[in-house]
Specification:
Elements lengths: L1 E3 L8 E4 L2 E11 L7 E8 L5 E7 L3 E5 L2 E11 L2 E5 L6 E5 L15 E7 L2 E6 L3 E9 L13 E5 L4 E4 L8 E5 L5 E4 L3
Antiparallel strand pairs: 1-6, 2-3, 2-6, 3-4, 4-5, 7-8, 7-10, 8-9, 10-11, 12-13, 12-15, 13-14, 15-16
Length: about 190
Amino acid sequence: MKQQANLIRAGQVIEHDGRRWTVLKQQIITPGKGGAFIQVEMRDLKTGNKTNERWRTADTVERLLTEEKEYTYSYMDGDNIVLMDPETFEQTLLPLDLLGDQAPFLQDNMVLVVNLVEGDPVGVTLPAQVTLEIIEADPVVKGQTASSSYKPAKLSNGVKTMVPPFIEAGERIVVRTEDASYVERAKG
């Protein structure tokens, strides 16, 4: 399906130069002189290579339609993750690199959304937030109360994040899977 280049968004799958690409980032740039253009960072679905491409905003690109299907995460198998189809109970093997930076947030029995193009997996979406335990938290530095200060902490999955000063080691917090940022204390 053809669409204007200025409508490209992260997560979409497009066809360019006879290859399939998943869009990682996009930015519309309007220079002081000349027409606006869109800068797109994308990854080749076959090779995994990244590239940057520029189009004028009026150009058209071929967008591929993706189908979303829910799977349940089972376990890791080397550089792959094993997912189970909750309807048929069939197991599917996907490369871990489809998750990118979100891989450490995988939890047993987590429901993932797999994006498929013509039956081939092209991306995996995790839930927006997960609950994890703080295993290490720096002590509060006295006198840093004038502004909203955060301190470094290490989560149970090994990821480091910044948390408010009242959070201590052993507490459970909710973090965003997108950027590992603190959301709130876990309830219950």
